[in-house]
Each structure stands twice: as C-alpha cells, then as structure tokens.
Write a structure and sequence with these properties.
The protein is mainly α and about 500 residues long. Helix content is about 70%, strand content about 0%.
Length: about 500
C-alpha cells in the first residue's frame, strides 16, 4: 500500500495509538496492522513507540501476524520499563482465566527478552525486579501447558529458554560485581526454567525411553521404533539443560533435589556423567511417584535403564531401593496400553533383578512376592472373564497348586510392620480367587497359612497408639485392609 503522505506528515503519538486501537478492535479500520507497520518503518516513526503502555495491551492480545512485527519494534524502541509493566499487567489479567494461548505466552516472553537488556535498576534490586515477572510467566506457562499441542510445547520451552538466557545476561551486567545478588537471580531463573520444563514435559515427544532402550539392548532391536520427528523436541529439552548449565547448575544439584524436573533433566543427560553419584538411591522416590501418577513415564524408564547399565549402580541396590521398584514395575509392564512401554519396563525389571544381590532375588523375598501378585491377579481375572473359564489354567485348581506355595506363604512379621499397605494386594488377589477358583482344600490352606495370621497381626496394628491416633495414612490403609479381609470372609462363607 502506498504511503499516505498527508497521514505520514500528521502522524504523532496520539494518532498512532488511535490507528492501532482501531485496527485491532474495529471491523473496518482505516488502516490494518500491516499498513501501520509499513507506515512506521518507512517513515522512521519508531520513536513514537517509546510509550508502549498505551499500545501493547491491544497488540499482545491480537492474532494478526503484523501485530507481532509491531510488538517487536516496541520491544526494541519502547521504554523498557513500560514494556515490562505492560506485559505484567496483561499477565495478571490472563492468569485469572482457566486456560491461556501458548502463542500469547511466547510473544510476551520474547518481548521481555528484547526489552530487558535496556532496563535500568532504580529503587529495586535485580532480584526484586525480575521476581514478579518470572513468577507470572511460570504461572502463564502452567496454564498454557495444560492443553497445548506438541508444537506449542516446544515453542514454550524455546521462548522460556531464550528469556532466561537474556535475563541472566542482564543480571550479569547490572549486578556483576555483587556475587550474592547474581546468585539470588540465578536461583530464581533456575526455578523458573525447571517449572516450565515440568509444565511442558507432557507435550514434547522425544522418544527418550525407546532411544535409550535401543542403545542399551542393541541385540533386541531389529527395526528402530523411535518416533519420527523426535529431534526438534529433544533439541528444545537440551536447550533448557544448556541454559541451566549456564546458570551454574550441575548434575550433582539435580541428584540432590529429587524432583520431577530432576528426573527429566537426568534422563536426558549422558549416562557417564551420573557414574558414582548415587543417582538411583536419590531419585528412586521421584521415579516411584512418577510411575504412580502416570507422568514422565518415558523419562523414568530411560533414567532407570541408563542407571542399571552403570557398574556403580550395583552398590546402590539395597532393599530400600529395590523394593519399591519391584512393586511398581510389574503392574506397569502388564497393564500399560502401549506395547513398546510394556516391553521397555519388562526389560528394565529383568535387568534390575539380574544385577541386584542374590538375597533380594530369592523367592522368599516378601516384596518380590507382593510385586508378582499383581501379575498373577491380572491373569486370573482375564481367565475368569473368558467365554469358557473351565478351560483356562488360571481359573482352575492348578493355579493354587502352582503359585500358592510361592505367592501365599506366611510373610515375615518385619515385613508386616513396615509394608502393611502392600499386603492389601495379596488380600485382593485372594478375593479374586474366591469368585472362580473354588478348591476348598486350597482355601483351607490359605486360611491357616495367611488369613488367620493376618487377622491376628491386624488386631495388633489397630491397637497401637501411634497408628490409631497420629498416622492418618496408616489408618486409611489398615481400614482398607480390614474391609478386604471382611470381604474374603464373606466370600468363603458363601462357599460353605
């Protein structure tokens, strides 16, 4: 569009604000945002953008691609202080909503990144200046990340990484001689980047578990099953890690923190950097929580595979580390809807059992029996739901004759005291047996060897002062176990 010489000559700040407002909100504006951008750049009128508080709120919320061009000009030419204020005000308004467009968050992050290098410290310190901005951005990313696509998740990670790097450079300039001030700001940036990574982890698809599996088990890989296009996702994650290293973080820092962000970062880090750092001991609770919550499954599998193939990991395989893994991995290997994940977990569990101390691989090891109960229970339920259950081995007396001596032995009292929450799995398995496998001799054996001792032990637990008054989680677990026992008693009574 040719430049309107009369308009260009009369153009001032008020006229520009009116044109932008009309272009964003009116159905038939005098000029479109593209025309306005053309007018500003060709007449050298970018100086009119020095006060962005009047223009940015309209432009940030616009979906017009030309709005982004004008926003970039404002970031470069406008008052850095007003740019930051305008973005903060728009974020405060948007974070009250249930969701937030990822594209809008990315625009704001890039805008702050451009303006921050020109921001001067006044009454506030560097950490006070960036604190609200980073907190608002993290909240915005959390909102946007709930429903964003794979591509949007990558954009959020990239924009946040660029913002953190530019803010870090600004901090180094304005507070370079004050090591304590720089350290405070870097900690805030680190928290921000880790929060963004956790919020967007479900969006990116790096195929980290399958790639790690194929590296660890090359002989089991006949054709790669890695998802196409994983490189861009992995690049975004690696950029986050690069920024964290720029902020002074190390592998040791994330080993100590035991968070979901630590789990993700370590899963995407080289295995040799985790040698002799007791990663499995430290991250085992995070891995357990991740699997139980069905989040970051790929990273959990990848990290386990990497660690289990390190020679130093053998020294970490104590009862406290192995027991939780042998409880959570079998159900995941048997029930996850993705066959690739089931195979990955099965091989992970196999590797764990092959390198753990021999006394932990003993069939008398209580945790192993409790973990295996879930697998057998699934097979029994499938057999009982078959069109002809009588023809199914897992719905016949042969089941208890084969598995009963291993799975249903009396469990040592020490295990009862520490892991009574897991005994409920065994009781639920017995309840399943009541519905189909009606071998009275076998049930009598289970009654004498397991149920009667369990009732007695349960009475003792319920009478303990610390359980009955203080531990609400123990109360709930014991009540659930008691209800399961009562259901078993009812089922046995119906057979007599």
């Amino acid at each position: 569009m040719p430049i309107d010489e009369k308009l260009a000559t009369a153009l001032n700040f008020a006229a520009l604000v009116a044109l932008i407002t009309s272009a964003v909100h009116d159905d038939s504006p005098r000029l479109s945002l593209g025309d306005i951008y053309h007018l500003i750049t060709n007449t050298g009128s970018s100086s009119l953008l020095v006060r962005p508080l009047n223009t940015l709120p309209h432009l940030i919320s616009s979906n017009d691609t030309s709005a982004k061009d004008i926003v970039s000009l404002i970031g470069e030419c406008g008052s850095a202080k007003e740019v930051v204020m305008a973005v903060q005000e728009s974020e405060e308004e948007e974070t009250t909503k249930a969701s937030l467009p990822a594209q809008l968050v990315c625009i704001r992050a890039d805008l702050i990144g451009v303006a921050i290098s020109r921001l001067k410290l006044r009454r506030k310190s560097a950490s006070e200046t960036i604190q609200n901005t980073l907190e608002d951005f993290e909240n915005a990313v959390t909102l946007a990340g709930q429903f964003c696509s794979r591509k949007e998740g990558i954009s959020l990670l990239d924009s946040s990484s660029r913002l953190a790097e530019k803010v870090a450079a600004w901090v180094k300039v304005v507070a370079g001689e004050d090591d304590a001030a720089v350290s405070r700001c870097y900690k805030m940036l680190e928290s921000f980047v880790c929060g963004v990574l956790t919020a967007c982890s479900h969006c990116v698809r790096t195929s980290i578990a399958q790639r790690t599996f194929e590296q660890c088990f090359p002989k089991l890989t006949f054709r790669s099953a890695v998802e196409p296009g994983w490189e861009e996702d992995e690049k975004a994650v690696q950029e986050v890690i690069r920024v964290l290293w720029l902020l002074g973080c190390t592998i040791d820092d994330f080993v100590k923190r035991r968070s979901q962000s630590s789990l993700i970062i370590l899963a995407h880090s080289p295995a040799n950097e985790m040698e002799n750092k007791h990663v499995l001991t430290s991250l085992s609770p995070a891995i357990t929580a991740s699997v139980q919550a069905n989040m970051n499954i790929g990273e959990s599998i990848a990290l386990l595979l990497k660690l289990l193939h390190l020679p130093s990991t053998r020294d970490e395989l104590s009862l406290d580390v192995v027991a939780p893994l042998t409880i959570i991995l079998p159900p995941l290997a048997s029930t996850h809807p993705d066959p690739l994940v089931r195979h990955q977990v099965f091989r992970t569990l196999s590797k764990l059992l092959s390198i753990c101390p021999s006394n932990l691989r003993n069939p008398d090891f209580p945790q192993m029996r409790v973990a295996s109960v879930g697998l057998v229970k699934e097979a029994v339920m499938e057999a009982l739901s078959a069109p002809e259950p009588a023809s199914e081995v897992f719905a016949s007396p042969l089941l208890l004759k084969t598995f009963g001596p291993v799975l249903l032995r009396p469990i040592p009292p020490i295990y009862f005291r520490i892991h009574y929450r897991d005994i409920g799995n065994v009781v639920c398995f017995i309840l399943v047996l009541m519905t189909g496998v009606r071998d009275k001799d076998a049930l009598l054996s289970v009654e004498r060897g397991l149920l009667a001792p369990l009732r007695s032990t349960l009475d003792n637990w319920m009478s303990q002062p610390d359980v009955s008054t203080d531990d609400i989680h123990a109360n709930m677990s014991l009540a659930s176990l008691q209800m399961s026992l009562e259901r078993v008693d009812t089922a046995v009574a119906s057979l007599q």
